[in-house]
Each structure stands twice: as C-alpha cells, then as structure tokens.
Amino acid sequence: MTPPTQEKPKWGCTRRAVPIALFFLLGLLLCGCEIWSLERGIKQVGRGIEEAEGLGMEEAALYHLKVARNLLEEAEGQYEQADFPSATQFLDQSEQQLARARRLHTMSQPAPP
Questions:
Q1: How many helices (H) and strands (E) does the chain have?
Q2: CB-CB neighbours of 4 under 10 Å
Q3: What is the distance between the alpha carbons of residues 74 and 89, in angstroms, rounded to a whole number?
Q4: Nearest Cα to Cα of residue 78 among 69, 88, 66
C-alpha cells in the first residue's frame, strides 16, 4: 500500500483572513479616534471653564458654571470607567452649560457708549 499523499493547504484560508484582519484593525482605529476626541473634548471644556472663571463670569452665570463643572467631573469619571457613551453625553451637557454661561455673561455686560 502506498501512503496517501498530503496536499499542501491552499491559499484560500489566508486570503479570507486578510480582509477580516483589515476590517478588525480599521475598527480598532475608529474606536481609538473616538476615545482620543473624547479626551480632547474633556480637556477643552475644562480649559473653557477655567477661562470663564478667570474672566469673572461667576457673577452673571454662577449656576451654569457650577453645573458645567459638575457635569465635566462626571464625564471624567465615566471616561475613567471606560463608559465612553455616558462620558460623551455628560461632556455634551457640560459644553451646553458652558455656552449658556457665556451667553449670560455677554448679556450682563454694559453696552458700550
């Protein structure tokens, strides 16, 4: 009896693996971009709140600045717990409160002569 000949594996298996691997890497890249943009947003809103407090906006919009800071702290906490959708939601709310504080500050400024 002659032993059966073993055939070499065809390249079909690796040809299927390449698109799957590329799709997986693309997904990782997109998730990383979302996380980086969230981190940048947290830093920008934090700087915006600090600038607002430095300009003396507390007088006109104390409530909105406090709410914005509390929402930002909550966003940072959710970010640290890797709950990115909630962190994004809290960050958006914080940005809205900061924008309201800025509007109130500009409305409370005396008109130029």
A1: 3, 0
A2: 6
A3: 10
A4: 88
pTM, to two decimals:
0.67
CB contact at 8 A, 61 and 105: yes
Q: What is the 3-state secondary structure (H, E, C) of 2-28?
A: CCCCCCCCCCHHHHHHHHHHHHHHHHH
Token pair recorded at residue 88: 């994004």
Q: What is the pLDDT of residues 14-47, one digit of tens each?
A: 667 777 777 767 766 666 677 788 889 999 999 9
CB within 8 A of 79, min separation 6: which ones?
38, 39, 42, 87
Q: How many CA atoms lie within 13 A of 16 on its CB side?
A: 3
